[in-house]
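Design a sequence for this backbone.
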């Protein structure tokens, strides 16, 4: 019995994994995305990021364009805005604090970028979380795959209380 199990384990080890193999470019982009996600407020320069993931600037830039259809800077901006949307939804941090935490130089620059992407200012977005309109307007889905209407369903829960108690308006 033990010999059979050992042989089965060796056979399984030889068989390729069910997961598809990533190209070198995909590995570089995934590593860079992961690193950037950890330092949104103070990201590295393109040269530093490239060194960190084991490549050079031009190769990293080209990999981002091929894999994601956008530049490293565009990805960084989108990641910052996604994080800001999460903070607006899940915390009571002021818009100014969210701008600083996500790496925007000031609240005005943050509000402009957010409005360009979402069609609403951060304050309008946050106010809209209390109604079903924000999700329908923006089509935003949280990390668990739920629309924001799932969080504020009028059932008197703590999530609904956040809507009625008011959130800081620093924009």
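Sequence:
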């Amino acid at each position: 019995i033990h010999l059979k199990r050992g042989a089965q384990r060796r056979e399984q080890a030889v068989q390729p994994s069910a997961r598809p193999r990533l190209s070198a470019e995909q590995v570089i982009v995934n590593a860079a995305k992961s690193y950037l996600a950890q330092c949104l407020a103070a990201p590295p320069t393109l040269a530093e990021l490239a060194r960190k993931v084991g490549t050079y600037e031009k190769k990293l830039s080209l990999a981002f364009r091929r894999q994601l259809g956008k530049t490293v800077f565009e990805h960084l901006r989108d990641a910052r805005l996604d994080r800001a949307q999460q903070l607006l939804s899940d915390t009571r941090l002021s818009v100014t604090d969210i701008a600083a935490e996500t790496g925007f130089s000031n609240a005005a620059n943050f509000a402009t970028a957010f409005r360009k992407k979402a069609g609403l200012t951060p304050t309008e977005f946050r106010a809209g979380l209390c109604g079903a309109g924000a999700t329908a307007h923006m089509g935003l889905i949280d990390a668990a795959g739920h629309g924001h209407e799932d969080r504020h369903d009028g059932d008197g829960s703590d999530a609904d209380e956040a809507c009625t108690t008011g959130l800081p308006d620093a924009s």
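Confidence is low (pLDDT under 50) at residues 132-171.
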